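Can't attach files on this board, so I'm pasting raw text. These are the components:
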Amino acid sequence: MEIVKENIVTVTPENFQKEVLDCDKPVLVTFYANWDQPCRMQQPALDSIADKHAEIKVCKLDVEEYPAFAQQYGIMMIPTTIAFKDGKKMKRATGLRLEPVLLNMVK
Amino acid sequence: MDILVIGSGPAGISAALYAKRAGAEVTVLSRGSGALAKAEKIENYYGLAEPVSGAELEQNGIAGAKRLGVQFAEGEAVGLALNDDFTGLRVQTPAQALEAKAVILAAGSTRLAPNLPGLKALEGKGVSYCAICDAFFYRKKAVAVLGEGEYALHEAEILLPHASKVMLFTNGKEPAVTVPETIEVHTEKLAAVESETVNGMERVSALRSEDGTVTPVQGVFVALGTAGSVDLARKIGAGVENNRIVVDAQMATNVPGLYAAGDCTGGLLQVVKAAYEGALAGLAAAKYVRKG
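---
Top answer:
Structure tokens for the assembled complex are below.
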């Protein structure tokens, strides 16, 4: 079961620069895997932010597909969400985080 | 079964009573006494003409629930997950897997947060609280599990097929379980979790013992004592903030069918609060089960 919705951008090592680092909006990137239950449970919060907050870009990156890239970002726990602003890492949250906590990361 | 309650303290028993009264089939999974039994005297609770011991109050609660037809099972919950077809929840004990349409976490709060330098700071950088979630990152790497009981052994066994080496660090305790030879046991007291910085990224590199021994590891999985409500919540993806399970006004977590009550949701560590939350959770879970 693919858990990425339309208004959530699936990012890869190829489009990471364009979609995340060059984005003029604050970006939340969640590093996830489809089989992981906490990652599945993280999804409703991401969907809700993507639906309600056009000013925030919500992205997901599959660590199983891109393990080396995830390693570059020091991902050792899923889900891990990193907030980016103007191409810079701002905040990082490990483990499942509910909507208010995620929103707080890009405030 | 309809509802499985994990924990037989005031929150768990109240949850079981209200759910049972609401018509649900309820089983309480109990591993013996909890925080209440350690309270010498309870004298600030409604209806007590004379103080009673925590142990007595707890035993009375269990006896009352049994009288009303609540089922009891002995065992320690070491895992919590959705079942295979996502229609309910599955609780793992060392002896069996129990499936229920709804689960109420009422196993208290873990008071075992180890005061080991580096552990908190390295969370997500090699320190993990969930083997099944994060084993993936430790393929062919050496990992340590901190703990000494069934819970630690369960986590270690999940890691075995992935890691190059799994070590159990009991931090000065004797292992309370029989550990298979494939898992190396270290009983010395620990001094710190050490880290290294690779490409600007800090990560776990070793465990240092009080005797000065440094054991290189790339992952440290925390599984001390028994799995508390918060540990179980983390495994299934229920929201946890500041070591408390996040619940709504009906004690529901973000996971459908999963409720939490008592010490594990924070606030007053009091019988009266645990009993109230248990009642709410029991009613909400019974309603959830009825709706199917």
